[in-house]
Structure formats: structure tokens, C-alpha cells
Design a protein that fits this description.
two-stranded antiparallel ribbon, 16 helices, 13 strands, seven-stranded mixed beta sheet, alpha/beta, single chain, 418 residues, rod-shaped
Length: 418
Amino acid sequence: MNNKNNTRQLDWPLLTFGLIILLLVNANQFQHWSQGVDYALYDKHIQASSQAADDKILIVEIDEQSLSLLGDWPWPRSYHAQMINILTQADAGVIAYNVVFSNADLKDQNDQLLASAIEKSGRTILPLYFDRLLKEDDVTEVVPAEEFKQYAGLGHVNSYLDDDGTLRSIRLMDRFDDRQWPHFAFASFLFNQPYSPLLELQLSDVYIPFVAVGGFERVSFVDVLTGLISPEQFSQRTVFVGMTATSMGDPLLTPMNDHGKQTPAVEINANVYQALDRERLIEVLPSVLALLINSVLILISLYLMPRLSGIQQLIMTLLCLAFAWFLSFSLLQQGYWFRTAGLMIALFTVPFIWNLLRLSRLFNYFRRQIKQLKNQQAKEVFRLPNHYGLDSEQELTALLQLMQIDDYEILPLDSEKT
């Protein structure tokens, strides 16, 4: 008997509502219906937790000043050969040269000088990329010419933007046919330590914990070339060389952009290198943990909701939202991105939907009570005392109107006697 009573007391509308919310929130972890809000929250977390730039990293920028003084792009390759020689002689730790040299002519003295500089350096990393042609599936691999790449390390600089056009992640390893290439920054990182545990993890996309905008030390290409920068400034530092001139570069939107200002690719690569060096790359929180967190918070909210007053529900909702936000921020500091937008939207809407259900139940109860009263009134026979002395039906009708009785039926005397 007790089991039957408990079954009857189960709040089936609440259980159904809770199951639907739980399924939607957990499905959102895979379907990404709240992707735009997730990106906005992620960007805010990244901006709030940005770190100082590592002083072991330096950027030699091909800026507007260099283009103005050295001439239009592309420059003679002897300029690049000079730069590599200067950095090599200054004992730079790694020279990550983010300029693509896809063809070569050894009859050209400039190409000879560049090939010789790369060979003597023994610490130069060159980029390659996958070029998507007219057809979406028609991709070609653009690599440095054989004369240059045989003495250099190689890494891909492919960019995969999110749906909102922002670069938040990179592929540590990218594949073309049967060849697999590390990211340009990863190849630079592996130069001084050929083995990394990341090679065994087989991570696909990893997210970048960007430093503050403009945080890395920069020097102008032309200043280095003309000797205005002391060689000691490059000693045992990782040097990234690349385009920053807005007229020629390939800047991208990142979570750290200031009022729409884009970030040059060379600085993005420096960010990736620092994240690798400090072991701070970010990956998506494993699905099992995300589903567990979603389920626990939603179930707690649904359990407490019917037991709290309106003010208490508001306080509980604000606390749950704050906890979800703090949890996602804390996990990001540990290297895991927990997509919380769907959970936070659910926690915010649960009290409203629950109170709508309560109001609906209340209105249904009132409707049933009114219907019962009407049915009861329809069955009742009202007899007027004889001393009223009414002589006609018209006088009876007038009296009922005076008494504000609108819903009535006058029965014949025969029916009244029965």
C-alpha cells in the first residue's frame, strides 16, 4: 500500500520536465546549439586570465617601416639570408621564419645565399600550408623548395577558424595524404627537445591561451638588418620572424582582439609556442565529465525548486549560475574548456518554467472547482417562502434580478412537488 501511495505522489510533470531539460543540456554538449554564447564566455575567460609574455620569445616583425625602407614585397631573398645569418651569429635558440619560399633557382645568387644561410644555421624552421583550390576537396600542399627545406625544420601554418571567423585553436598535427606535419610553433618547440608527450596524445584541435595584446617584445626587421639592434638581444631566445604590416600580412581575429584589431600570424605562433613551453594548451573537457557536471547541477536545481519560496529560488538560481561560471573559469586554468552556456541557460530558465507549471496547475484547480460549483447550482431547487406573495412569473423574475441571481430556471409546480 505504501509503495502505491508513493507512486501516486510522484510529481510526474516535474519529472518529465526535468528529463527533457537534462536531455537538452547534455545533447547541447555535442550539438553546440549554444555555440555563440559558449564562444563569448570562452573569450571573456581568456581575456581575464591572459598571462605575461615570455621574455625568451622575441618577434622580428616585417612592419610598415621595413617595407617603406627596403622596398615593396617580395624582397630579394638575400635580405632573408642576411637576417638568418645575423640571428645565427647572435646564437638565437630557434629561428622560426614564417615566410614561404615555395620555389628556388640556384642560378639566382639570392637563392644561393638563402640556401647557404639556412644550411649554416641548422636551427631554422620554415612554414608550409595546404592551399584549397576552386573545389572544396581539391587541396594542394605548398612546401618550401627542396633547396631550402632539406636543411630546415618544417611545420604547417594552416588556420581553421570557428564559425564566427575567430581563431581560437590550432591543429598540433595536420595530415596531407600519408604525411603528417606538426604545427609551425610545435616544430619550433620540438627543435630543442625532439620528444614531447604531446606526440603520443594524438590531440586534434587544441585551444590557445593568448597573452595580452602586444605582449611579446618586437623589433623591426630593418633595424636588425641595419645593426640598430644589439646581437646580444637574440642570444638563446626563440625568434619568430614574420609579417605584421597590415597592408601585406595575414592577421586574424582572436579572443584577445582590441576593438576589432586583428592579430598577425607571427604573434599567434609565438602564443602557441609559449603555451607549449609552459604546458598550458587547452583542450575540450572530456564528454563524460561534462555530462556528469550538467546532470548533477540540473538535478540539484530540480530537487530544490519545489521546496523553495520565490526569493529563495532566485537566490539559488544566482548561486548555481555563479558556481557554473566559476567552475568553467577554474577548469580553463587547468587546461580544460567546459562549454557551460547550455547549462547556464537551463539553470536560468528552470525556475520560470517550474513556476509556470505551478500556475497552470493552480488555474486548472480553479477551473475544476468552478465547474463543480456550476454543476451543483444547476441541480439545486430554490423555493421562495409563501409570505412573499408573488402573483405572477414576471414579479418572480423582477425579484430574482433584484437579488442579482442571473443563472436560474423556473420549474413548474408539479416538478417542485416531486
